[in-house]
């Protein structure tokens, strides 16, 4: 099973439903990966509206 990115929150998962936001709209057409360890102290997390640790896609089509 390949990895997909959520079209709403950009979280990368192998599931069929996003475990972070429960969205069912996932895409295998994404690029760039951000691995977030400290979302509270990260300017990138703030810009991407990321509140939890995890792997996120920069761009989801």
Helix content: under 10%
Overall tally of domains: 1
Order of helices and strands: EEEEHE
Number of helices: 1
The name of the CATH architecture is Single Sheet
Q: Tell how many strands the DSSP assignment holds.
A: 5
The name of the CATH topology is Rubrerythrin, domain 2
Q: Structural class given helices, strands, pairing?
A: mainly beta
The average pLDDT score comes to 96
How far apart the termini lie comes to 19 Å
Q: What sort of overall outline do the alpha carbons produce when their principal axes are compared?
A: globular
Largest sheet geometry:
3 strands, antiparallel
* Sheet with most strands: strand arrangement: 2-1-3
- Taking Cα atoms only, what radius of gyration do you get, to the nearest Å? 11 Å
Q: Which spans have pLDDT < 50 for at least 5 consecutive residues?
A: none
Strand percentage lies at 25-35%
Assigned CATH class:
Mainly Beta
How would the blueprint of this fold be written?
Elements: E1 4-6, E2 12-13, E3 26-27, E4 30-36, H1 43-48, E5 54-60
Antiparallel strand pairs: 1-2, 1-3, 4-5
Explain this structure:
This protein is mainly β and 61 residues long. It has a single domain (4-60), classed as Rubrerythrin, domain 2 (Single Sheet). 10% of the residues lie in helices and 34% in strands. The chain is built from 1 helix and 5 strands; from the N terminus they run ββββαβ. It has one helix at residues 43-48, and strands at residues 4-6, 12-13, 26-27, 30-36, 54-60. The strands form 2 sheets. A 3-stranded antiparallel beta sheet has the order 2-1-3, with no helix packed on it. It has a two-stranded antiparallel ribbon with strand order 4-5. Strand 1 and strand 2 (12-13) form a beta hairpin. The longest helix is centred in the C-terminal third of the chain and has 6 residues, at 43-48.
């Amino acid at each position: 099973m390949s990895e997909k990115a959520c079209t709403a929150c950009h979280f990368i998962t192998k599931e069929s439903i996003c475990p972070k936001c429960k969205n069912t709209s996932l895409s295998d057409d994404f690029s760039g990966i951000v691995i977030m360890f400290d979302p509270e102290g990260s300017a990138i997390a703030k810009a991407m509206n990321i509140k939890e640790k995890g792997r996120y896609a920069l761009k989801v089509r």
